[in-house]
Amino acid sequence: MKTILYSIIGLLITASTFAQQPGDEEIKKSNAFLRFNPSEVNMGTILVDDVNENTGNIEIEVHNDGAVPLILNQVTACCGTRVTDWPRQPIAPKQKGTIKVHFRVSPTPHRISRTVTVQSNAGNGNVQKVAILGEVALPKAQNEIRLP
Fold this sequence. Notes:
By secondary structure, the chain is α+β, with helices and mostly antiparallel strands.
């Protein structure tokens, strides 16, 4: 009997917890709401011969879809990636800003996997990340292995 009672109480507490979480539209009405464009940067496949000093220059748009100004407190990047510029002034509702990132892409075959982390006052998450993915590859003719 006690087991059934405790199970019912646990189920009610769990259900009430999930029922109280507001959706995105509700958050947007009374908070800043951070959205990235693109939400993930996919650089695709870059051939070794096409790598230059501008290959690692990335721009990420930051949109405030909420009702109050969005304040970016800190923008950081990982593993040799530099954030060269980001909006230091509040981004007004329905406006956008740009985060500029640079990293060196070596002209050798490798995978690109970087992360930009944004700390803000957004109601949909104070810490959000954007992945930068891609691959540097040899031209197809150089990838082929020929057997005698």
